[in-house]
């Protein structure tokens, strides 16, 4: 079941069957507890009009993570390319990457940052589990920074390794990004606390 009662009364939680991301919406947005298409449509989700799903969040839809049966119907989720996840917090979208950011991961990361930037003004790139970044990865970061800046947003880096900090400094792009010691610090700062 991918639409369940939400926290507190009067809300429902729509859960992505692919990535586990969720949104909470007023229960008043739906008139029939089995028919949830008003919520999925309002929030840009794809999938079944019924509560039992499957449902996919805008990120998974935009990244093309749903297979098609040739007639435009979803055949269910496909594996997420690379090790990447997007979490939507109130203050920002957080893109988490596991592993090196190189030419093999760059296209997926580029798409994820673009989608995250469409859904939130600020994006935090969580680099906790990234050891290395190559020139292709740096290009993705600079482009995402430029795209977000044009829309009045920003790209923050959280928990970059010493190597990544050195690369950013050597390439003289370290001042482009607000850099934080952890994801939590970045989100706290973006919330104004």
Automatic annotation (TrEMBL):
Pfam families: STAS
Signal peptide: none
UniProt-listed Gene3D superfamilies: STAS domain
Top-level taxon in the UniProt lineage: Bacteria
Molecular functions (GO terms): anti-sigma factor antagonist activity
Domain STAS stretches: 82-190
InterPro entries listed in its UniProt record: Anti-sigma_ant (IPR003658), STAS_dom (IPR002645), STAS_dom_sf (IPR036513)
Family, per entry: Belongs to the anti-sigma-factor antagonist family.
NCBIfam families documented for this protein: ant_ant_sig
Full protein name: Anti-sigma factor antagonist
């Amino acid at each position: 079941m991918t639409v369940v009662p939400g926290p507190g009364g009067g809300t429902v939680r729509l859960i992505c069957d692919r990535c586990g991301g969720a949104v909470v919406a007023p229960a008043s947005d739906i008139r029939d507890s089995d028919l949830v298409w008003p919520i999925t449509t309002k929030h840009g989700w794809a999938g079944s009009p019924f509560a039992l799903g499957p449902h996919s969040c805008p990120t998974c839809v935009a990244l093309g993570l749903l297979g098609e049966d040739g007639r435009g119907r979803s055949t269910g989720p496909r594996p997420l390319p690379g090790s990447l996840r997007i979490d939507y917090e109130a203050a920002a979208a957080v893109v988490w990457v596991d592993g090196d950011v190189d030419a093999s991961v760059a296209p997926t990361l580029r798409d994820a940052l673009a989608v995250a930037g469409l859904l939130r003004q600020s994006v935090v790139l969580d680099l906790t589990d990234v050891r290395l970044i190559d020139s292709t990865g740096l290009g993705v970061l600079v482009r995402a920074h430029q795209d977000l800046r044009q829309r009045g947003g920003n790209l923050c880096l959280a928990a970059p390794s010493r190597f990544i900090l050195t690369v950013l400094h050597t390439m003289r792009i370290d001042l482009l990004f607000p850099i934080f010691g952890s994801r939590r610090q970045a989100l706290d700062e973006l919330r104004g606390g």
